[in-house]
């Protein structure tokens, strides 16, 4: 019995009573024998006589199973299966393939074996149906899996007509054609019912939509009438406003014309006064620019005069300080000589034809040729040591670069100045010097000659700038420099002797 009240095919061995609604092999009612007074069972869904269901014996399925005369063969049924039944067969085979041994799965289906049953049925539906149709061992394996794992679901007596038709196809049941036809009619009826329900649902929705649109139309008409009334009212108000604005505009136009005439009269006099004011402004601006230039020139002259006065005062202060230091040193020297006893000239001072070689004398400087004389000279108060830079550095460190020579000599002179307290000035030729000024030369004055000026000339200028009487010591081995500075009263020390003291 199906869920819709109809029964499946009769079981084999049951006598078919003539007239009870049974069908012959070609689908026509049998005419032989007396008819029963009871009506034949009728399918409640399709209105057709119900089919009786024979028992499922599950013979070895074959494609050439015997059929009733006039009924299509199994092969013909496979070739024109309805889509719902074909989909159900794919689902049945997909469920079985997932639990079958790999050896029993046909080669075309092995690549789908790892999918879920639903995905396998969706993607491999045509392949599954083709294997069910063409492979009897695969059909047998599918039936065996369903009998073992889900017994009672895949039988010709199943309530689901698609399952019943699928079971009949797989087992080549004698009533396969009737079950397939019943499944097809059931599917078509279900589709018709679904279409009918969908159509009724659409009718209900359209009815509701029509009622809603009618309400909206009524409301829109009412709003249109109200809007028309408001529009007429606003139109009358706007007409009154336009009339009032027109009157105001005419009045404003007349007033504007009068004002333009007045402005034109005023402008004729104002333009002349404005031109005179602009000319006066330009003249005043020129005078102001001239005064500003004069003031700037005066300010620059005053600044230059102040700078010159400041530099002159600083130079005078330096010279005065050096002179005081020299006088103090001379006084201390006189005191030491007086403390040793004996005043006045000594016998050696009265020898005729000689020149005094006293340090700082006016007759010229003396050479300092050894370390003892150098140490005695470095002990003089207010001594100024002037060093010919490259003459000394190239003598002491010829293998170094000029920059390294300058750095090393300056550091050694700074150490000497800190020990003795003397003033130290070192002069280098500045023609090829592009490096930044030396650092870490505290206590040492580092000078570079200007382009085109020799360091020797700078040394001579330094000696000439010192006040007479101050002890000066020039470190160089250049004979011309030695001769010129000694003529000016400076003492000289060879570069080698100075390097000995620096290294010691």
Description of the structure:
The protein has 504 residues and is mainly alpha-helical. Among the domains are: 101 residues; 139 residues, Rossmann fold (3-Layer(aba) Sandwich). Helices cover 58% and strands 5% of the residues. It has 13 helices and 5 strands. The chain has a 5-stranded parallel sheet with strand order 3-2-1-4-5, with helices on both faces. It is elongated and about 160 Å long. Keywords: Coiled coil. InterPro entries: YacP-like. This is Putative RNA-binding protein with PIN domain. It comes from Pseudonocardia sediminis. Pfam families: NYN_YacP (PF05991).
Summed up, what is this model?
The protein is mainly α and 504 residues long. Among the domains are: 74-174; 365-503, Rossmann fold, CATH 3.40.50. It has helices at residues 74-79, 83-97, 117-123, 125-134, 136-149, 161-171, 176-340, 371-378, 389-396, 402-420, 455-465, 479-487, 495-503; strands spanning 384-388, 423-428, 444-448, 472-475, 491-493.
């Amino acid at each position: 019995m199906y869920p819709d009240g109809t029964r499946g095919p009769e079981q084999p061995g049951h006598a078919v009573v003539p007239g009870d609604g049974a069908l012959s092999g070609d689908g026509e009612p049998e005419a032989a024998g007396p008819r029963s007074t009871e009506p034949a069972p009728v399918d409640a869904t399709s209105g057709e006589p119900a089919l009786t269901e024979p028992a499922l014996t599950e013979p070895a399925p074959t494609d050439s199973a015997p059929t009733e005369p006039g009924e299509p063969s199994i092969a013909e049924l496979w070739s024109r299966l309805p889509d719902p039944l074909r989909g159900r067969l794919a689902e049945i085979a997909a469920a079985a393939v997932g639990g079958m041994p790999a050896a029993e799965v046909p080669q075309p289906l092995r690549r789908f074996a790892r999918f879920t049953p639903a995905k396998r049925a969706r993607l491999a539906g045509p392949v599954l149906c083709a294997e069910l149709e063409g492979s009897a061992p695969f059909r047998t394996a599918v039936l065996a899996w369903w009998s073992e794992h889900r017994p009672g679901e895949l039988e010709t007596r199943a309530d689901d007509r698609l399952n019943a038709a699928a079971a009949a196809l797989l087992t080549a049941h004698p009533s396969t054609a009737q079950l397939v036809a019943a499944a097809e009619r059931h599917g078509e009826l279900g589709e018709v019912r679904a279409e009918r329900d969908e159509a009724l649902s659409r009718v209900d929705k359209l009815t509701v939509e029509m009622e809603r649109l009618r309400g909206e139309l009524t409301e829109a008409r009412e709003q249109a009438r109200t809007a028309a009334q408001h529009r007429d009212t606003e139109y009358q108000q706007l007409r009154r406003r336009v009339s009032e604005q027109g009157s105001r505009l005419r009045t404003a136009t007349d007033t504007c014309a009068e004002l333009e005439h007045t402005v034109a009269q005023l402008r004729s006099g104002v333009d002349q006064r404005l031109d005179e004011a602009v000319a006066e402004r330009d003249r005043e601006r020129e005078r102001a620019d001239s005064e500003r230039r004069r003031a700037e020139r005066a300010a620059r002259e005053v600044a230059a005069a102040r700078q010159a006065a400041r530099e002159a005062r600083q130079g005078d202060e330096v010279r005065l300080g050096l002179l005081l230091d020299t006088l103090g040193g001379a006084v201390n020297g006189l005191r030491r000589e007086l403390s040793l006893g004996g005043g006045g000239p000594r016998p050696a001072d009265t020898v005729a034809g000689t020149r005094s070689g006293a340090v700082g004398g006016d007759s010229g400087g003396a050479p300092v040729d050894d370390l003892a004389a150098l140490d005695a000279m470095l002990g003089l108060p207010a001594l100024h040591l002037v060093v010919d830079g490259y003459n000394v550095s190239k003598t002491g460190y010829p293998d170094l670069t000029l920059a390294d020579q300058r750095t090393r000599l300056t550091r050694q002179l700074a150490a000497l100045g800190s020990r003795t307290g003397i003033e130290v000035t070192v002069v280098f030729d500045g023609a090829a010097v592009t490096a930044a000024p030396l650092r870490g030369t505290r206590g040492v004055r580092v000078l570079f000659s200007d382009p085109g000026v020799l360091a020797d000339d700078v040394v001579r200028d330094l000696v000439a700038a010192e006040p007479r009487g101050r002890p000066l010591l020039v470190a160089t081995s250049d004979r011309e420099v030695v001769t010129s500075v000694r003529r000016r009263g400076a003492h000289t020390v060879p570069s080698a002797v100075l390097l000995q003291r620096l290294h010691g």
